[in-house]
Specification:
This protein has helices spanning about 15-25, 40-50, 65-80, 100-130, 140-145, 150-170, 190, 195-205, 215-225, and strands at about 5-10, 30-35, 55-60, 80-85, 135-140, 175-185, 235-240. It has about 240 residues and is an alpha/beta fold. It is globular and about 50 Å long. Bound molecules: nicotinamide-adenine-dinucleotide.
Length: about 240
């Protein structure tokens, strides 16, 4: 069977889960990565299967480079090369710069930036050999415009943009594309912690006047994963209701 393989990191909930569902609907065999919540990842797989799609769970911590190398290498051996990698896993540890703890800075960079770099590096090896691939990074509008109280997060997310542009140039000759989605304010568990006042403050700055959904981001990920975007690489695409233009 000629399967097309996609790996989505942090696929057990939120935007990652929506991307897994959407790519499965588009015909990909989806590897659903999770780091700790196997139960939620299994629910995502069950929904995919109930809708006639296919995939499997793939547990590893993106910030552990040895685990990433081992897991992605094993997937290529047992199944075949990845055609799509979506680096969605991320954490946000918010706080003012002057109170920023080294451990929080390290963890943010380790997961949000280095984790995506580790996964991109391993997937690139497979995709370059196959001379086909699409890597989609999930950055953030905060990496484009900054935000008080999110210095570490924005450093990681804008680092991901610079990294992706370099790698897009490196890999283009092998028909491997690299693009970045920069979501704005999306309703997920990550944003559930905001107070009602904070939410209203955000909404006032969004020209379309509403928060986005995980499916809005998944639609863009599906486009960038598909051959419909075959001439698109090195781009940063906002899914943000006009919050940043
Ligand atoms: P979420 O917290 O619901 O999901 C993040 C996922 O990443 C979780 O499944 C979590 O388990 C996983 N993860 C965290 N650390 C990991 C690790 N070390 N290894 C593997 N997986 C790990 O958040 P979300 O809102 O769905 O966010 C998904 C992505 O979108 C993140 O990169 C986030 O920064 C980005 N983003 C979200 C918003 C938003 O408004 N929700 C806006 C801009 C960008």
């Amino acid at each position: 069977m000629n399967r097309r393989y996609a790996l989505v990191t942090g696929g057990s909930r939120g935007i990652g889960a929506a991307i897994c569902q959407r790519l499965a609907r588009d015909g990909f065999y989806v590897f659903i990565n999770y780091s700790s919540n196997e139960g939620r990842a299994r629910e995502v797989l069950s929904q995919i299967e109930a809708n006639g799609g296919a995939g499997e769970l793939c547990g590893f911590d993106v910030s552990n480079s040895a685990q990433v190398e081992e897991k992605l290498g094993a997937l290529a051996k047992s199944h075949g090369p990845l055609e799509v990698l979506v680096n969605n896993a991320g954490i946000a540890i918010d706080g003012l710069l002057v109170r920023l703890k080294d451990a929080d800075l390290d963890r943010t960079l380790d997961v949000d930036l280095k984790g995506a770099i580790y996964c991109t590096r391993e997937a690139a090896k497979q995709m370059m050999r196959a001379r086909k691939g699409s890597i989609v990074q999930v950055s953030s509008v905060i990496g484009q415009m900054g935000n008080a109280g999110q210095a570490a997060y924005s450093a990681a997310k804008s680092g991901l943009i610079g990294f992706s542009k370099s790698v897009a140039k490196e890999l283009a000759g092998r028909n491997v594309r690299v693009n970045v989605i920069a979501p704005g304010f999306i309703e997920t568990e990550m944003t559930q912690g905001l107070t009602e006042t904070q939410k209203q403050d955000y909404l006032r700055t969004i020209p379309l006047g509403v928060a986005g959904s995980a499916d809005d981001v998944a639609s863009m990920a599906a486009f960038l994963s598909s051959d419909q975007s075959r001439y698109v690489t090195g781009q940063v695409i906002g899914v943000n209701g006009g919050l940043y233009m």
